[in-house]
Amino acid sequence: EETEPTDRNYWEKKSSVLKYVDAIFKDVSQYAPGFELKYNKFYVGLAKNGTASNFIYFRPKKKFIYILAKCPETPERSELLDNSDLEWIYGSRSRAYRIKINKLEDYKNNKELIESFIRDAMEHRNIEI
Q: How far is CA 20 from its chain centroid?
């Protein structure tokens, strides 16, 4: 039984918006140096020194991506997202905010907000900024 390797090529065949992941990850690298993208079968996560550290991870789809930030749900965080133009949901099983990025402008227009969720997820996982 042959299985397709799960690498960047695998995701490029599945999704036309991997460039969104690249753009967001480039910004994350500014305040979380040393991390690299780790391509898994169901998501694109992060790793540092070869060890997975998925305080955030991405679920690329054909025409959009989800950013998942693993931090506790709070009324304050939820209100910030409610007041934005982003589609989102809090996954109680994943314990992560799932934010939908339909086009790169969604990220650019809400960059500070999304970065605050990424930093909250880092803090929750005790990752130094």
A: 10
DSSP-assigned beta bridge partners for residue 100:
66, 87
Q: Which of 74, 98, 71 is nearest to 86 (CA)?
A: 98
Torsion (CA) 52, 28, 24, 12 in degrees, nearest 10: -30
pTM, two decimals, is: 0.92
End-to-end CA distance of the chain: 43
Residue 63 to residues 20, 49, 66, 100, 123, Cα–Cα distance (Å)? 10, 31, 11, 11, 30
Tens of pLDDT along 66-113? Answer: 999 999 999 999 999 999 999 999 999 999 999 999 999 999 999 999
The angle at the Cα of 6, spanning 30 to 37, to the nearest 5 degrees, equals 5
3-state helix, strand, coil split of the chain in percent (to 5) is 40, 25, 35
Structure tokens at 97: 């905010």
